[in-house]
Write a structure and sequence with these properties.
mainly alpha, two-stranded antiparallel ribbon, 64% helix
């Protein structure tokens, strides 16, 4: 009998898994900044994933009652920018809130009336649309794959997080002149890993902790001799590395997020445990927690004290949010178009909008989405958070009335739901989902949380027929 992520996979499924893995790896390693050439090229791979996965989901090997729901996430990601890009007659365009003054200015400048679009900057909105293709493709392919293959994709992300954490620690040791800084605009002298921003590295590491803990809990539950299992020790070491490296970024937002993540990790370990394997695992779990605690204190106390007054943006954060809300007022909840923050923010025209630090985002993604997408964007956010909360409630309670195959990897699903909420929490003070790396990671977590559209199918192992679960 074969084991592993390809044990019961057909040739088409294995090919989809291979393309998904390649796309995921490239998105992780090339998506730590914004607007790179690599991101634009990856859109083709993301589009291929959507088409192939859509064909797979449209076959007979899926549960029809579940399949239609899995079109909602990619549709939600792409429908708003598509609507904002649709051309409108000039008369209809001028009726949109906030466009009258712009139209008057164009007439004064001698520009002839022409058709417009909901968005004020179509090129910027089109870039947002293309950047959503990769996360949508990874989500669609992941829900068309088998459960073991989705867990393999999660393992790829955790491996990337470990690599990025180690690079971040090495950057600190080499200092501001380190050759390991891969972006021109970055936090030199700090741990940024494979990102341009230390806050994004800290956010990814903190959001990876509950997922790693969930995989550890599932591994212990299914393998009674956890002390002899190399994967158990690797996952334990990974949890320690992620926690320590998150503090090494010296990011106050990251440190606060890490504290919440530690609580979420404890919840995963406690709620996903079972009888048997955990009895023998208590000692090394306590030892791992003690080591992590000591190292966190070592890295944090001095670094955090130095960091408290070192970020010039912190003193402007509330002013920046207020200015963004002021800039959004003329749109009256309709939004100026995704990606139009810089244009709309510059239109305030007041001294209060001028700040010493360079401002390219509101550093509060909910406020920025209000400016760019208005009520439709916020409605999508509320729906997404409601869905995650509903799934979280199910896996925290351990509702055994649900499908047994959904509870088989309860730890990973519980960790995925909490990690998505951590990313949502981070978005209050930053813009993590505007980086391709974290957006793709979040889409994979959503696929893990919601499960598969594929049916369970029997396979024959010798003379015994077993049911292979896909979640």
């Amino acid at each position: 009998m074969r084991h592993g992520p390809h044990a019961d996979a057909s040739g088409a499924t294995r090919a989809l898994f291979a393309l998904s893995s390649i796309t995921l790896v490239l998105a992780l390693f090339l998506g730590g900044g914004q607007g790179s050439v690599g991101e634009q090229l990856l859109a083709l791979s993301g589009l291929a994933l959507i088409l192939i996965a859509g064909f797979r989901i449209g076959t007979s090997d899926v549960r029809r009652d579940r399949a239609r729901w899995f079109w909602l996430l990619p549709a939600a990601l792409m429908v708003l920018p598509l609507l904002q890009l649709l051309p409108l007659p000039y008369s209809a365009w001028t009726m949109l809130p906030g466009r009258g003054a712009i139209a008057a200015g164009l007439v004064t400048a001698g520009v002839a009336p022409a058709a417009g679009a909901w968005t004020l900057v179509p090129f910027a909105t089109e870039q947002i649309l293309w950047s959503a293709v990769v996360p949508a493709g990874v989500f669609m392919s992941a829900v068309a794959l088998q459960g073991s293959q989705r867990r393999a994709l999660v393992a790829i992300v955790l491996a990337f997080a470990a690599i990025s954490a180690l690079i971040g620690l090495w950057q600190i040791m080499e200092g501001p002149d380190s050759a390991l800084y891969f972006y021109r605009v970055t936090n030199e002298g700090e741990a940024v890993g494979l990102f341009a921003n230390r806050n994004h590295l800290a956010g990814l590491l903190a959001a990876s902790l509950p997922v790693a803990a969930g995989m550890l809990a599932d591994r212990l539950r299914h393998h009674p001799h956890g002390m002899r299992d190399l994967r158990v020790w690797l996952l334990t070491a990974l949890i320690v590395l992620l926690a320590v490296s998150a503090t090494a970024t010296h990011s106050r937002a990251g440190f606060g997020l890490l504290m919440v993540s530690v609580v979420a990790t404890v919840v995963v370990l406690l709620r996903a445990r079972s009888q048997g394997p955990w009895a023998g695992a208590r000692h090394w779990l306590r030892a791992g927690a003690l080591i992590a605690g000591v190292l966190i204190v070592q890295f944090t106390l001095y670094g955090l004290l130095v960091r408290l007054e070192s970020d010039p943006l912190d003193q402007y954060r509330w002013q920046l949010a207020a200015n963004t809300l002021q800039a959004a007022e003329p749109a009256h909840g309709t939004g100026f178009g995704l990606g139009t923050f810089l244009y709309a923010y510059d239109e305030i025209g007041e001294e209060s909008a001028d700040m010493e630090p360079y401002v390219n985002h509101a550093h509060d993604d909910y406020v920025e989405l209000w400016l760019e997408g208005g009520l439709p964007a916020l409605a999508l956010i509320v729906a997404a958070l409601g869905l995650v909360g509903w799934q979280l409630r199910k896996y925290v309670r351990g509702d055994e009335e649900g499908r047994r195959d959904e509870m088989q990897y309860r730890g990973l699903k519980l960790g995925a739901s909490l990690s998505l909420l951590l990313i949502a929490l981070h978005s209050i003070v930053d813009y993590p989902l505007r980086t391709l790396t974290i957006a793709t990671y979040a889409s994979l977590l959503a696929a893990v949380l919601l499960g598969s559209v594929r049916r369970r199918r029997p396979v024959r192992d010798g003379w015994v027929e077993k049911s292979v679960r896909t979640d």
